């Protein structure tokens, strides 16, 4: 019962219009942009996919074409989740509101679990918005791009869409969990977000490009690989296992810190 | 249960510094207990230990009969405002209270009633970041009242309030105590505390200097008789007369301040008369809580 109280309280904070609408607007805009580029530039011959892979009309006409635009924006969904999770966690320290929460709910693990569940609900809403916009734009632009959509309405296509939704959600949650870990560790939204974004967006990509063998060990690269359902270089299962190991061990450490640390600010 | 709060040897050490050192005191049920001490004396640390926010280094304590090592057993009956109000700036005052009401499982209907009680009914829907310090303080008090507490812990509740706001808080505290709530309140407005607190706990450098009834604290201080000669030229003769008689005397604005109980007033009056000095005033005064505080804490 008390867990439901925590989730309800956290959702009240997350559904404030400035946070909810602006985040969904960013996700919708990015999804719209990336999906449109794929369909409008499909015959450019320059390859608009990840790492320059060629996307052809034939590729998009297959069953997986329906989910193509959707999974393309997964990385940005992840970064958005990282920022939201980090700020929502760290702000309790920087605003001094953690003491109010703990006076009303002294079971600290319930606070942490309730926060995580409510932010998961928020992440599901983001991924859902992404999926709806991506599928709608894909269908809308398919005619213009001369993509045959017959294979999109088969059971196989729907299964791929469902699997992609799950993978994008898992990746988004992995990025969000990383954000929460950083938020608990740094106790400052700016420090947590800056560290998370600089690491996953810049440092990991440089490392991965310079020393390709590091890719399979970098958390952000593995999170993104989950959203893509695996890659020729790193398998889906590997990314899933290594991500769970990284996140579970780091989360255990910060959860112990959260439980034991004095709230003195 | 006769005590709302009871602590024995409560200690908190940070590195080599003791924030609170072997504090022992009781706060009776159904009364207002003032918690006073200079800045950095350990008041807020003590309050945080009572609310389960800080783990004590040593000692024991209980709140509403439950050990402070299990705050989940009593916090649903405790309202608290610690070290100023802290809320989400992008949410309205009302929404901030609703977050806490949801968290504590309290009825949402209480939110509007409490906003009205603290005089924020017109600004409840404004964002917290637009509030003045006084309004923030009122919202903090409303949040503390959400659980209909049996014990209310307030840390500097009148900070930033104007005189009428201070009076409202004083009346609010009196009303709550009349309804059976125990109030543990720290404040730098000692005259306010003297007016409402039957009990006082005084801290200095983490140690309890006094814990007990306010009147006992004030009685324990030496009484003063202020005697003013009719003519200013008689003051020095009067002072030497008192000193010879063994009284401890200082001067203040043409009057002698004599450390003596009120029942010695006739003796001093007679002494002055016999020395040919007429007194225009002879007034017994008790030191205020503020004077007592300064004397005891050496501030």
Concise summary:
The complex is a heterodimer of chains A (265) and B (299). With 265 residues, chain A is mainly α.
Q: Give the class of chain A from helix and strand content and strand pairing.
A: mainly alpha
Q: Can you tell me the CATH topology of the largest domain in chain B? A: Rossmann fold
Radius of gyration over C-alpha positions of chain A, nearest whole angstrom = 20 Å
Number of helices of chain B: 10
Largest interface: A-B, 28 and 32 residues
Could you spell the SSE succession of chain B in H and E letters? EEEHEEEHHHEHEHEEHEHEEHEH
Proportion in β-strands of chain A:
under 5%
Helix content of chain A: over 70%
Report the sheet with the most strands of chain B, covering strand number, pairing sense and barrel closure.
6 strands, mixed
User: Tell me, what is the CATH class of the largest domain in chain B?
Assistant: Alpha Beta
Oligomer: heterodimer
Strand numbers in spatial order across the main sheet of chain B: 6-7-8-3-9-10
Number of helices of chain A: 11
- Fourth-tier CATH superfamily name of the largest domain in chain B: P-loop containing nucleotide triphosphate hydrolases
N- and C-termini, Cα separation of chain A: 29 Å
